């Protein structure tokens, strides 16, 4: 007996020791993997550079990888947001969180509601340095939004705005998502925590390297989400989605209250009357399904020339199939054509709520958001109501929406205006003697460019022309094509060349900057300057999007010959040296490129800059990347101080190096004419 007991104790001890050492090995391995960036969960923000007492940081776009596996993160569109620490003067910081509507799809970063909000709040609070952090990530549910906000609180904002609710079913950690993490909040939390382990990151890396199929690209995201299948109005997953939303918003409100941070909750708006629900035939048998199809077909054919007859056909289809999204939507269309707009709106809402592919939040989602805001005594911005007030009485449509739920440019401005007014109200103790300006003023300030407008039309044309969104939206697809074609013929040659260059993927730059460089090459100075200034707003604290664009914008103004630089434009140039000291620590900058930029800046400010440029031009990188600007400056400045022969030498050396002999001959002819004159 004693021997048996001793044997059992020995086994238990051996197992305990083995288990202990196993845990130790796993813990050590986890610690090692967490120190390797490739396997560790990406940080919310990261340090880019330090100069003297200033630190340049940015919101880390790779942070989106915490929620996605096997999907192109660039397609997820979490935007970088550079910022300086410590910020000086009075500070107002706002975090805006949500999905792709917050992120701003399909618009450039500077034309999103968050970007417009920064300008509006700066006008309202002129004594404050306003920073608005857009932490929206495409296709995330409120569970992920909750995690994002928790990490974003490290920014120490005074205000957090949450615009979420559309992704509660198909979004990541949604109730019908392919990455749901389970049904309960507890299981989702466990799943999320496990996904952040270094060991998980290592295994994911190995699996992705071994599997034959590549990672899903961003264009496939909609199809991936729809692969989760139909979610009919009676599906239990709809109820689960509402429960998840409620729990997440309550938890989020509690976190903000504990930190003393004002939380603003918004209802969500969608395209009610313009966007058609998915065409999924009703589950009826025999002759009834053929009868339903016939009534729908006859109703569509008669819609515009005989709307009364069309209405009768659609009413018959509803009688056959009941509360069916496709029937309800088309009945609403017939009512709208007949001028019965209020009734049409009610049917459009019923169709949206019955959509078997619930991309858009239904009426119950906004009901939950209102209940939570009341229960937790939060500020509510009823965005849905605000959008309806600015829309026809038949409902929100293409005037304020680009697709099923993403606001158009006017929608982005309306969203920003709604948030800004709510923030002003919540921060009544701050000195807010400024006023919000007209939409046209903010469009001008932010650079609302024709080429980018056309790019949105073409992007939406592509989205709405392909499954699963191609049925029922054919009329609007034709309108988008017409708008894009009409705008294309009005673009200049430089704008078209810039679009083709950007679309080819060869530029590696934003559309605004790609077009600006082509416009500059075509000597379209005034238009090039506008595109360069837009690029500055689009990509601050970057070598090309900011520094290069600032220099070229000023150069365009001087080459245009109409005027000299004004005080604001000179101030932008005067800021470049301090920016360069921070940006120069990135991989792009060599000492020669930094010196060239500083010399270029001096030249534009009327301080020659020749000394710096002559030193910089000894670098092959400077010669290759900036030969046009280098030579134009040297050919202008050196003859002025009696060094024409040196200018000629630079022309021969550099144009030979970059294989631009004909351009060199042209410059030599100009220099020869200067000598004669």
In short:
With 677 residues, the chain is α/β, with parallel strands linked by helices.
CATH architecture label of the domain at 87-273 and 361-445: 3-Layer(aba) Sandwich
Per the CATH scheme, the topology name of the domain at 87-273 and 361-445 is Rossmann fold
Helix/strand/pairing category = alpha/beta
CATH top level assignment of the domain at 87-273 and 361-445:
Alpha Beta
Strand order of the largest sheet: 5-4-6-7-8
Relative helix content: 55-70%
Q: Cα distance, first to last residue?
A: 118 Å
The CATH H-level superfamily of the domain at 87-273 and 361-445 is SGNH hydrolase
What is the overall pLDDT average? 90
Output the number of helix runs: 30
Estimated share of beta-strand residues? 5-15%
Quick one: biggest sheet? Answer: 5 strands, parallel
């Amino acid at each position: 007996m004693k021997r048996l007991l001793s044997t059992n104790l020995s086994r238990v001890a051996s197992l305990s020791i083995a288990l202990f050492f196993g845990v130790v090995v796993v813990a050590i391995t986890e610690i090692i993997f967490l120190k390797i960036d490739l396997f560790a969960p990406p940080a919310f923000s990261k340090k880019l550079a330090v100069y003297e007492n200033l630190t340049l940081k940015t919101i880390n776009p790779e942070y989106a990888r915490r929620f996605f596996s096997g999907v192109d993160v660039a397609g997820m569109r979490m935007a970088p947001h550079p910022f300086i620490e410590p910020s000086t003067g009075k500070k107002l910081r706002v975090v805006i969180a949500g999905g792709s509507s917050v992120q701003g799809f399909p618009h450039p970063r500077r034309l999103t509601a968050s970007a417009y909000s920064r300008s509006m709040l700066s006008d309202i609070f002129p004594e404050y340095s306003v920073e608005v952090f857009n932490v929206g990530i495409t296709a995330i549910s409120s569970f992920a939004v909750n995690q994002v906000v928790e990490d974003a609180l490290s920014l120490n904002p005074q205000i957090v705005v949450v615009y979420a609710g559309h992704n509660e079913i198909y979004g990541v950690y949604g109730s019908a998502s392919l990455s749901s993490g389970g049904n309960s909040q507890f299981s989702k939390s466990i799943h999320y925590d496990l996904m952040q382990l270094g060991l998980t990151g290592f295994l994911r890396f190995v699996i992705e390297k071994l599997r034959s199929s590549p990672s899903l690209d961003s264009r496939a995201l909609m199809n991936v989400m729809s692969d989760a299948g139909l979610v009919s109005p009676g599906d239990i997953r709809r109820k689960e989605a509402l429960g998840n939303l409620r729990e997440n918003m309550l938890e989020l409100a509690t976190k903000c209250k504990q930190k003393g941070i004002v939380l603003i909750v918004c209802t969500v708006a969608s395209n009610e009357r313009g966007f058609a629900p998915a065409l999924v035939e009703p589950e009826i048998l025999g002759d009834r399904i053929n009868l339903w199809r016939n009534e729908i077909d006859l109703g569509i054919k008669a819609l515009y020339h005989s709307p009364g007859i069309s209405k009768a056909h659609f009413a018959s289809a509803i009688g056959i199939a009941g509360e069916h999204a496709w029937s309800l939507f088309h009945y609403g269309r017939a009512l709208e054509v007949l001028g019965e707009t209020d009734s049409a709106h009610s049917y459009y809402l019923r169709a949206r709520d019955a959509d078997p592919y619930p991309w858009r939040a239904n009426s119950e989602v906004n009901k939950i958001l209102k209940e939570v805001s009341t229960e937790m005594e939060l500020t509510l911005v009823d965005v849905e109501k605000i959008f309806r007030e600015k829309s026809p009485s038949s409902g929100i449509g293409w005037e304020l929406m680009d697709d099923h739920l993403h606001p158009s440019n006017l929608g982005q401005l309306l969203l920003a205006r709604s948030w800004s007014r709510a923030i002003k109200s919540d921060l009544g103790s701050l000195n807010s003697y400024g006023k919000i300006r007209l939409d046209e003023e903010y469009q001008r300030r932010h650079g609302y460019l024709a080429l980018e407008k056309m790019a949105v039309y073409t992007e939406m044309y592509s989205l709405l022309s392909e499954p699963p969104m191609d049925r029922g939206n054919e009329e609007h697809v034709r309108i988008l094509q017409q708008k894009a074609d009409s705008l294309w013929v009005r673009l200049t040659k430089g704008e078209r060349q810039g679009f083709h260059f950007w679309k080819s993927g060869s530029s590696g730059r934003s559309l605004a900057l790609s077009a600006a460089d082509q416009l500059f090459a075509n000597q379209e100075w005034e238009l090039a300057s506008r595109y360069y200034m837009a690029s500055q707003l689009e990509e601050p604290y970057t070598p090309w999007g900011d520094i290069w664009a600032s220099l070229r914008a000023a150069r365009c103004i001087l080459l245009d010959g109409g005027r000299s630089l004004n005080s604001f434009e000179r101030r932008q140039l005067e800021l470049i040296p301090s920016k360069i000291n921070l940006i120069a620590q990135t991989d792009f900058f060599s000492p020669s490129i930094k010196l060239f930029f500083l010399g270029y800046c001096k030249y534009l400010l009327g301080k020659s800059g020749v000394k710096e440029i002559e030193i910089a031009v000894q670098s092959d990188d400077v010669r290759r990347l900036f030969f046009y600007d280098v030579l134009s400056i040297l050919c202008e400045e050196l003859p002025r101080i009696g060094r024409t022969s040196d200018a000629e030498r630079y022309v021969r050396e550099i144009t030979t190096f970059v294989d631009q002999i004909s351009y060199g001959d042209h410059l030599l002819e100009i220099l020869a004419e200067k000598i004669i004159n």
